[in-house]
Design a protein that fits this description.
single chain; alpha+beta; Arc Repressor Mutant, subunit A; Alpha-Beta Plaits; 4-stranded antiparallel beta sheet; two-stranded antiparallel ribbon; 6 strands; 34% helix; 21% strand
Length: 163
């Protein structure tokens, strides 16, 4: 990947709403080249989508998120990709990663209630033949998501202490 394409990707990661003209200005490419590179990146699968980062606590929408650890035992007919395909089919799954360490998959899940998340785990993940164990960790509060801070440093409501 050349430096201009890398800077184009970096600009999109920082703000995917940038116009083609703004991206051209930031990268030093002309607009036609930016459009061409974006099309190439999308076609190759390097760019998989453009998404918003939402602070659900700042909306009136109820949203529950969890990280589910999934342990599996593989056999001759089943591999990690097979299991990942099955789990990824669910609209409740926000992200799915194969991990090193104490568990095999990390599944980020969201729903409108704890019951939704629990049902996903008990009805869609745990019954899979290769799954040997699940551990669900509910998200209590999000401080940072994909590089965006949710913490407002101007809201320091601590009382001043004077000697």
């Amino acid at each position: 990947m050349d430096e201009a394409t890398r800077s184009l990707i970096d600009a999109l990661v920082a703000d995917a709403r940038e116009s083609t003209a703004d991206l051209a200005r930031q990268t030093g490419l002309d607009e036609a080249t930016v459009e061409e590179r974006l099309a190439e990146l999308e076609e190759s699968g390097a760019l998989r989508g453009y998404t918003a980062i939402v602070d659900w606590d700042a909306t009136d929408e109820e949203r529950v998120s969890a990280v589910v650890e999934v342990n599996v035992e593989l056999d001759r007919e089943t591999d990690y990709d097979d299991i990942a395909r099955r789990i990824a089919e669910s609209p409740a799954v926000d992200s799915l990663r194969l991990m090193s360490g104490d568990y095999d998959f990390a599944v980020n899940v969201s729903g409108s209630s704890m019951g939704d998340v629990s049902r996903f785990v008990s009805e869609e993940v745990a019954p899979l033949p290769a799954v040997t164990k699940t551990v669900t960790h509910y998200v209590m509060e999000t401080f940072k998501e994909r590089g965006i801070r949710f913490i407002d440093h101007d809201d320091d409501d601590r009382l001043s202490v004077t000697p």
